[in-house]
Amino acid sequence: MPSPLHVPAGSHGDDVVRTPSGVLVPAVIDPFHRSLHHVAPAGLIGETTQTAGMRRLEAISGKTVGARNLWMGQTHVPASTASANHHHGASETAIYVVSGHPVFVFLDVEGERPVETRIETGPGDYVFVPPWVPHREENPDEGDEAVVVIARTTQEAIVVNLPGLDWGDVAVEARPRTVG
């Protein structure tokens, strides 16, 4: 059987390398990032930054699979529990509700005055948490834990615990602004 040949569109010369199996791949892709990585439930890591009232488990990250720009894992919120207030720094966070009916609480500052707002969710729902937004998760269910899968745009789990939902407690890192 002839070895497979993969030549990316527009590739030439030093743009590709031949792997030990004989396949040509883009030279910018290092050997670690040429294959899929499987993380089974037993491989989840609990040594992440934590917020009181919930437990985070790391699945996909720099530590587990060498991810450069992504962090993904699970969060478990026990029955009748609310997490501490926190934000995730410059990271965007996407949340998928696996089980339970978690509530996401934040301070809506877009009106005439700040209003504490609650987003009630259930299995199959998605929630987007923009960078720096102070929030907390609650599980009002008296009998069942809430489980969500989270993905972040940074490969590490950035968690900054806060005393409240007030934006005054958020220290945003200075970043250069681009003019469009």
TrEMBL record:
Top-level division of the source organism's lineage: Bacteria
InterPro entries (alphabetical): Bacilysin_H2HPP_isomerase, Cupin_2, RmlC-like_jellyroll, RmlC_Cupin_sf
Pfam families: Cupin_2
Domain Cupin type-2: 76-148
Protein name: Cupin type-2 domain-containing protein
Species for this entry: Nostocoides japonicum T1-X7
